[in-house]
Amino acid sequence: MGMTITEKILAKSAKKSEVEPGDNIWLNVDVLMTHDVCGPPTIGIWKREFGSNAKIWSKDKLVIFPDHYIFTKNPQANRNVQILRQFASDYQLENYYDVGTDRYKGVCHIALAEEGYNIPGTVLFGSDSHTCTSGAFGMFSTGVGNTDAAFIMGTGKIWEKVPETLKFIFDGEMPDYLTAKDLILQVLGDITTDGGTYRALEFDGSAVFSLSVDERMTLTNMAIEAGAMNGIIAADKVIENYVKERSNKSYDLFTSDEDAVFKQVYTYDVSKLEPSVAKPHSPDNLDTVRNVQGTKLTKCYIGSCTGGKLSDFVSAGKLLFGNKVKVPTFIVPASTNVAKQLEIETISGVSLKQIFENAGCVIAQSSCAACLGGPMDTVGRAQDGEVIISTTNRNFPGRMGSKKSQVYLASPLTVASSALTGVITDPRDFL
Amino acid sequence: MEKIIKGRAFVLGDNIDTDQIIPAEHLVYSLSDPEESKKYGHFALSGVPLQSAGLPQGAIPFIKGDASNSEYNIIIGGANFGCGSSREHAPFALNIAGAEAIIAESYARIFYRNCVDGGFLIPYETSQKLNDKIKTGDELEIDLNENTLKNFATGESYKLRPLGDVLPIIEAGNIFEYARQNGMMI
């Protein structure tokens, strides 16, 4: 019987000739990633369980990006970064990207791609739910908790139940008013926040393969918002070239077999889709931008692993060019590399950074920032009674700070056009 | 492993995400320092909107005043309990607060794994919706041998879905003990 991409990668990792959904298997992990929120407790559990002579199973496979609570005065948050720093020093970890040095990268999921850790055909676990982002590279990637991460840190292995796969085929030509964010919000509206639980989401179709690497990561990033174990897109030439520029590791290209079994197949014609939002307080609370057009806003936010990539800022920059924002608008590049690109990338000779400054936006340093609220002094954090439109990934009560705030999730085009009017606005009004 | 869990119910709605279980600003505290980790108990379920806490009445705090433990030790949820982030601080916080088991229609994958592999709580599934049948404060009894839940307030009993593949990990205590018992680690 045929296998899906996910099944093939899991079979390879478990050293089996084939697997099928429901099989409980032990995987050999290629990369384990952690950060400042979940790293310290993971290290604590690892030391507790493996003892004073604990060994990291493979030091070159452990990658640590402090990224969550970085630019804060909160003493416990700073202590967590210090724990990572000490750990990296004690164990001489090469793949540690310290804050306050030129090695600092910012948000882990984007940094994993940029630093060449995303290798097609491999298995990556991370102590963060959005680890599924890396699936855009034709690899299996998923989030786990501290205990599982500690277990991997000591053994290089972890159990997993082989997921069924849901397939999403996007055909047609992407209109200039849509981005990958609109596509994934549509998926979430269709299958809801638990429609993907214990399942893989595979994205396919000509529209998907027309997307940039950044945009593909937006699709796989939000697979977890459907509860999915992983999101995945077969690696093509675009991915191969991106990987080769950043890594000399060998890779395996897998595609789903013709006779692979999918739990369900969903087909979309992207030319018929509309700019979308997820209304408060759930990522599956789908509506068209048109239907909520005019909703008064207190803040606009463009950032995070979902919506703080270069492609997101190029989209926003097109609309903000030569204009002024009407409400406070935060620009938070996901990584320091993206921040550098904002100075290099230009529209009509003006850098993106300059465009955002001229428009009156606040440009913050790279980190997870207000996507998950964070300590009270986090830039852009939601205050009581705020109504925010954001390119981030979650709008559960209190996700961006105050549980009395309301958050709409949308594409960078929709957020930028809303910034220009102060109310939720369809990007087609400006394009 | 205890075969009977007795206690009082705290009832919640569907889609209780990890930000509601433990809001992100609290994720800075140590989980290994016994005194500091009590903060997680204190803030457990503090992100649940007031009207949705302690159903059906609502506005019932899980933790009272300055306490770090709760008078409720069995959580009754609905569909998709624990969705959202991977933070293990969520089942940890419920555990520190004194919760021993959750009964829900379904769980988000990472939360479920964290409950089991970390040995924090027993996550039972039910095929029927119970968060509209059980009231916060009802006296309950879970029988782990029979996989049943009894509500003394109404006299009703409910079948729980057997824990299946993860039972050996729960019985061992956590994934590390399970691995030791099976020769996978020393």
CATH architecture classification name of the largest domain in chain A = 2-Layer Sandwich
Shape of chain A: globular
Strand order of the largest sheet of chain B: 4-3-2-1-5-6-7
Number of domains of chain B: 1
Share of helix among residues of chain A? 25-40%
Kindly state the number of beta strands of chain B.
7
CATH superfamily of chain B: Aconitase, domain 4
Number of helices of chain B: 6
Q: Tell me the fraction of residues in β-strands of chain B, as a range.
A: 15-25%
The biggest chain-chain interface is: A-B, 52 and 42 residues
Q: Runs of chain B with pLDDT <50, length 5+? A: none
Which sequence of SSEs, written as H and E, runs from N to C of chain B? EHHEHEHEEEEHH
Strand content of chain A: 15-25%
- Please give the share of residues in helix of chain B: 10-25%
As laid out across the biggest beta sheet of chain A, the strand order is 12-11-19-18-13-14-17
Sequence-ordered SSE layout with sheet pairings:
The complex is a heterodimer of chains A (431) and B (186).
Chain A (H helix, E strand, L loop, with lengths): L4 H9 L10 E5 L2 E4 L4 H12 L11 E3 L10 H16 L17 H7 L8 E4 L13 E4 L2 H10 L1 E5 L2 E8 L8 H12 L7 E6 L1 H4 L3 H9 L8 E3 L4 H8 L19 E6 L6 E3 L7 E3 H4 L6 E5 H4 L2 H11 L8 E4 L3 H9 L1 E2 L2 E2 H8 L2 E2 L23 E4 L15 E5 L1 H10 L10
Parallel strand pairs in A: 2-3, 2-4, 4-5, 7-8, 7-10, 8-9, 13-14, 13-18, 14-17, 18-19
Antiparallel strand pairs in A: 1-6, 11-12, 11-19, 15-16
Chain B lengths: L3 E8 L6 H4 L16 H6 L30 E3 L12 H8 L4 E4 L4 H9 L4 E4 L13 E5 L4 E4 L4 E4 L7 H6 L2 H7 L5
